[in-house]
């Protein structure tokens, strides 16, 4: 038996060593052996290549396996994800092919010379734009052959980008482009040190008293209320839901307070009173909070006001106290700046699990945000179960290697070839109803988004799969009922995200039947949760130019002189009008992204064509030199209700600092840290014009744009502001939380509170004082509270400088612990004051929160 085993082992080994014949298929074990032992590495070679239009990159294969890639044509392909469309057609004997979206493949040609064990193959290529950050590259490159199970290159099956991306260190890698010159700074220790420098110091006591978001009127008094389990709660009967959430929150501090309706006498026991009364001077969502030694009174203009008063009380709790909590005596009068205080979360690109949604909604309520824009449908995924349309989640919620897309969507964004890959999944109907109830209890309205007509590939492909299944079953009428594409459409287009087939056909009645079906099911979920669907977003943005022009269904519409559709330019407003009318009949206010409501760069669709009293527009494109950053004013002046969602300050998928190791896209701004978000001034859109995309300071916005900038004539149509997180580069729950927190708190501050430093220009002295209080409160209590709630927060990398042999260090958040290593990370000590260093080369620094949470480390320059 042992001899037979040895012979078998030798036979297998011999098979692995023999190069396969051209066109021969590999089996699964061979694919796995090759990808397990061959490294696949991306590299940025040169961003100084072609202005800002393209860059040079490479893929390197190091064959450490015992299998040779044979010369010439063969039945294998290597698939990889690239958000930058590859322009090179052939290199190193391999043909580059764009499949769709970010998916590309390498196919061997007759010119391929093979790759033997021990050899290295470099494959140079040119791609669009530039890459100056590791996360622009996507993980999970994989290999296929014949019917064998696809195999991921093991070193790319990782969230550590350096496992499959070569270091980005040289000037022509760190710069995005040389012409125009990239003027953005580089995040070095000394640059951070200068950025973090601020005069004066805030006392710990004052920082602990800082409430986020800052109340309108605060008057602290002497003394403290010492909360313990000997206290009780009395509440107006209508506040039962708010009391339930309050008791849950108190339990986090070891407090279990008995709560009774206010018709039951409180006696002489120390009591928290929760009341509702008309507060005309404060209005909707306003509240008063009075804390005394033995009594706390929260009076709200409405239930929401009481809830927000409770959040301000909780904000005064020190993070670490348990069982007994000291709260400073205070009188607060407060009301929100805006009625719309929103957070947008893209779950379509990547799904991060049910808990990520609940944690986000919980923290939104904590910081007085009230609109949760849930982007559950996209090109790359559909994330909500819809009764009657199981294909939306059976197929649309998963990406894998299925070129026919009958089992799943085409793999994208680093998911790899298997359904178990990152970003897959969805929320069931029952889970969504649970989320709606959870959000309602925290005064958070969930606004879902059915993305269309563009960015709709997931729903399009799911409905195509449904169509094919029902046609095969001999049910043509059912098959066509919700079809979103015209099988005869030969239109050619490519979107910003490199898709060629992601536009719903707006000329088909079945498209509107689909939207109505999904809307109907959503309304049922809201009713079951005890609430109403009053706002529904339909996207509208980034429709590929050329969509529908060669669709026979649309051509027939153009030929009909009586339908108001004369040509392709009429199709987007036609779609918008039909959807808006559909929503109006159901009592729903529609919402869209700004470019979904524009004929061109400056002319919005005719507002009078839509029957909706409220029609919200998320205005995002404030790339100043592109000349469309005045759309907030144009849309508001035309009667749309505007939600400021500007990319430069409010996109939390952008890096925190200009460093290649920071996660996120950076098309709107090279970086957006918490301080920049905190500095956003919603009352004067143009006052936020600070830098161009290349990093040049903007001195004269009108001169940059080359025309007059329209004034805001109807300020009442600016509803508020909203933060956005798009998830192309965000594959895990921990990653999405780090991108959102703590920037969400800075955005919440601006949505709730108008600062005294706001104006045509920032009052720098008053801003610095306000930022110092905010950031110190983050460091001393808010970050710890978030961590205790299971939220993975981002910690700023410290700044440092050696001056006269002394190491000086600081943090963007005053009072955040800084640690120093003098032995290249072998040991760490807390930085408390300037310290002598003899060898700067070995010095590392990082910030720390608690015992387990650290920032990225930095070296001295």
From TrEMBL:
Protein name (record): beta-N-acetylhexosaminidase
Active-site residues (renumbered): 542
EC number(s) from the headed UniProt entry: 3.2.1.52
GO molecular-function term, one example from the UniProt record: polysaccharide binding
Catalysed reaction equations from the record: Hydrolysis of terminal non-reducing N-acetyl-D-hexosamine residues in N-acetyl-beta-D-hexosaminides
Record keywords, A-Z: Glycosidase, Hydrolase, Signal
Annotated source species: Pseudoalteromonas rubra
Segment forming the signal sequence: 1-24
